[in-house]
Amino acid sequence: MNILKGFYAFAIGSGLFTIYNNLDNLVDPTIAVSILGIVSGILFFIRKYEFYYLALIWIIIQIPYFVINDTSINLSLLYSAKFGLTFGSSEIGVNIHVFLLFFAKYLILSQYLEKEISVKPFTEKSTELIGDGITFKTIDIISNKSLSSDINLSLNGIDYSKLYFQPQDSDKIKKGTVFLIPTTGGNELKASIIFEKK
Fold it and tell me: How many CB atoms lie within 10 A of CB 77?
């Protein structure tokens, strides 16, 4: 979660800085980009994680730049280092802000933060591991693929206190994987699941 806190703090900070530096020109398009970043950050910090897509939009609109004759279109905030191609009097390329795409997977995962997830086994082997299914609440993002949850589960004499959840969205069915982490000793259990977010 700390990586997202840092990202959203940057979004808010860069937005406020840009607005402050453009108080004499509030019609500058970067003001709208700044407001979008600030709003997405505020929504994150008040735990409205379902609006993660606003941050994705904020990233994407800062990446490209265009120069057509003497007209430049560049919505990047703070620093602008560009890499592009020139065609006569026109130019097209990307800003250094493309590095913000590193956060995309974390942002997409954040839609599952602090949500109750109900999972059912997807394979016969998974049925043996988790029975008819389990329900848990996610508490943290631990990588760009996984969320974690605290659980209290006992299987075959082994207690499990931690669960890692890896969602894989598809159009027809929501599939994923859960890993059950034992409290002490023993091996983690891996189960293929289908899930529902509540």
Answer: 22
